[in-house]
Every structure is written in C-alpha cells, then in structure tokens.
C-alpha cells in the first residue's frame, strides 16, 4: 500500500516538472505517451479488471451496471475537466464557468474524483475469488497502468494551471490536489475494504466504476490518436508497445 501511494503521488509531482523540459505548444511526445497509455489501460481493463470483478461477483449483471455507471460518470467528469485526463490542454481557452479568480476549480475537482476512484481499486488482496492466484500481479499491473496514465494527465493539467496563474510555484501547489487524489483513494479503500471480505460489494462497485472509467478514457485516446483513421507509424508503434507491456504483465 505504501509503495502504491508513493508511486502515484510522485508520478504526478515529477510529471508536473515536465513543463519545464517540454513546452506545452510542442507536445509531440505527449501524443506518443497517450497512445501508449491508452493501449495499456484498455488491455489491463479487458484482461485484468473485468475478469476479476466478474469472477468475484455472484451476479455479473450487477457488475455490468457499475461498468456502465463508470463509463457515463467519466463522460460527466469530462464536461468539467475538458479532457485533461487524456492530454487535452486548453491553455489558451479561458472558460469562466466554475472559476474563482483564475482557478479552474471544477476542473481540479473532477480530476480529483477521477484520481481518487483509480486509487480506490488498489486494494491489497482485493481479488478474493477462489482459484485466482495472480492478486499481487494484478495489483502491480493496475498500479503501473494508473501511473502511466497520470504522466500525460499531470503534464496537461500543469500546462493548464500555468496558463491560468502564470506562476510555476502556485500552479504546482494546485497540482498537489490531483497528486493526493489516488493516494487518498488507496488509504480510504484499504481501510474500508478491509471489512468487506464477506460480501466484497464495495470492491465490486469501485472496480466496476473504474473499469467503465478506463474503457471511456482508453477508447477516447485510441480514437483521437488516429483521427479519420489516418495511418501514423509512430502512434501505431506506441499503441502496440502499450498493448505488449500490458500483455506481458499477464505472463510474468
């Protein structure tokens, strides 16, 4: 649990400093990172999250409702986050809705919820169905997926914050709201879900929500990286690498 908290917190913190290395206006690397993370997220959702949550639950149809809820919850969150989760940077677009002064509070709030939910499924020993012996493998595969996904998201958020406050130090302090989301989710779920060994309903609900969430984000990323189905060799390579790494976690 401590490792997961540190990994996710410092992934966001260190990714915030990428704006000092890569100018937001020239973010070609970001498109590659997004294609990679989108393919990885999609794959771990299909081969890890969905089988785990379906096998664990006596009523798979109920899981389907949670997955749908997660998918459409992400649709709602993106109204406020403007797609920062998948690398959208509206640094020159000033939307007054939900801002006090120059801070996009609704954007930060929606990203915090998004991050909190992702962290909440990182439950040690959470996959308790009989006959499954890859709990720790799944834990680290999903942890890696969330961390990879947070790199372009943190970069995009930091770029937006910088454009709003015009000061790296202030923007960085606001970035910490996103940085503590997933660690807080890990702490809350590991305390709450420690009592859920019998029914596992909370774990089922959270995993279903995040699976739907990941399906929305990953498919959006993958569709956006090939607009009008144009061939782009670099993006295709990045996508295949993301797929390969996720599949590798299933065999290691």
Describe the protein's architecture and organization:
It is built from 9 helices and 2 strands; from the N terminus they run H-H-H-H-E-E-H-H-H-H-H. A hairpin with a 2-residue loop joins strand 1 and strand 2. The protein starts with a helix and ends with a helix. Helix 3 (28-56) crosses helix 6 (135-165) and helix 3 runs antiparallel to helix 8 (201-224). The radius of gyration is 18 Å and the shape is globular. A two-stranded antiparallel sheet has the order 1-2. Mean pLDDT is 83; it is low at 92-101 and 127-134. With 252 residues, the protein is an all-alpha fold. The longest helix has 31 residues, at 135-165.
Strand order, largest beta sheet: 1-2
- By DSSP (H or I, 4+ residues per run), the number of helices equals 9
Poorly predicted tracts of residues: 92-101, 127-134
* Dominant shape: globular
**Number of E-state strands:** 2
Give the % helix. over 70%
The arrangement of helices and strands along the chain is: HHHHEEHHHHH
Overall mean pLDDT stands at 83
Biggest sheet overview: 2 strands, antiparallel
Q: Into which percentage range does the β-strand content fall?
A: under 5%
How far apart are the first and last residues' alpha carbons, in Å?
21 Å
C-alpha Rg (nearest Å): 18 Å
What class do helices, strands and sheet pairing give?
A: mainly alpha
């Amino acid at each position: 649990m401590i490792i997961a908290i540190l990994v996710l917190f410092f992934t966001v913190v260190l990714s915030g400093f990428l704006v000092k290395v890569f100018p937001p206006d020239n973010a070609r690397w970001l498109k590659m990172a997004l294609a990679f993370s989108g393919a990885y997220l999609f794959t771990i959702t299909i081969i890890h999250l969905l089988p785990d949550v379906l096998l664990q639950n006596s009523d798979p149809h109920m899981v389907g409702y949670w997955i749908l809820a997660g998918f459409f919850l992400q649709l709602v969150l993106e109204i406020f986050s403007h797609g920062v989760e998948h690398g959208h940077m509206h640094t020159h677009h000033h939307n007054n809705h939900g801002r006090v002064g120059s801070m996009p509070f609704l954007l930060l709030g929606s990203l915090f919820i998004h991050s909190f939910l992702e962290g909440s499924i990182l439950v040690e020993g959470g996959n308790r169905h009989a006959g499954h012996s890859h709990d720790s493998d799944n834990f680290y595969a999903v942890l890696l997926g969330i961390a990879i996904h947070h790199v372009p998201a943190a970069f995009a958020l930091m770029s937006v914050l910088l454009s709003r406050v015009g000061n790296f130090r202030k923007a960085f302090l606001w970035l910490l709201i996103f940085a503590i989301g997933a660690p807080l989710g890990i702490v809350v779920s590991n305390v709450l879900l420690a009592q859920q060994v019998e029914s596992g309903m909370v774990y089922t609900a959270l995993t279903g929500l995040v699976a739907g969430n990941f399906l929305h984000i990953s498919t959006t990323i993958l569709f956006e990286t090939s607009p009008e189905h144009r061939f782009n060799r670099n993006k295709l390579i990045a996508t295949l690498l993301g797929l390969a790494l996720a599949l590798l976690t299933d065999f290691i």
